[in-house]
Amino acid sequence: MGHVAWMLLVIATTVFCPSSLALPQDGLTLLEIKSTLNDTRNFLSNWQESDESHCTWTGITCHPGEQRVRSINLPYMQLGGIISPSIGKLSRLHRLKFKYRDLSSNSLKGAIPSSIGRLTHLRAL
């Protein structure tokens, strides 16, 4: 009976607690940022909610041994749109590189969100 109960517990945990396989908060924040970008060339197509980690996504570098975003490097991808205020949630971000208003790179519009002021580790913009 104990073996059956253990199997039911494993199944129930897998079905009802999928968060163990879900993206960490930084990955979800990156998806929020992606949702405000116009990626007509699909450079960010590997940014998927179904992934276990965002650290292998195009343009993303994480702190070694952690799931925390260290840098976002997305120049020359012909992205449009705005930088989401969600950027302020990436509390360990050190470097952010988009390159604004260059026809060969990105065509981002709007102001830099004030939430970027919460990024106390940010060293390069």
Describe this structure as you would to a colleague.
The structure is a single chain. The chain has 125 residues and is α/β, with parallel strands linked by helices. Helix content is 21%, strand content 14%. It contains two helices and six strands. The protein has helices at 2-16, 25-35, and strands spanning 37-38, 60-62, 69-73, 80-81, 95-97, 107-108. The chain has a three-stranded mixed beta sheet. A hairpin with a 6-residue loop joins strand 2 and strand 3. The radius of gyration is 18 Å and the shape is globular. The N and C termini lie far apart (60 Å). The model has no long low-confidence stretch (mean pLDDT 85).
Low-confidence stretches: none
Classify the helix fraction into a percent range.
10-25%
Structural class: alpha/beta
**What oligomeric state best describes the polypeptide chains here?**
single chain
Per the principal axes of the C-alpha atoms, what is the gross shape?
globular
What topology, given as strand order, has the largest sheet?
Answer: 1-4-6
Largest sheet: 3 strands, mixed
Proportion of beta-strand residues: 5-15%
- Please work out how many helical segments DSSP would assign: 2
Radius of gyration: 18 Å
What is the CA–CA distance across the termini?
A: 60 Å
Mean pLDDT: 85
- The helix-strand sequence is HHEEEEEE
The number of E-state strands comes to 6
Please supply descriptive tags for the structure shown above.
alpha/beta, 125 residues, 2 helices, three-stranded mixed β-sheet, 6 strands
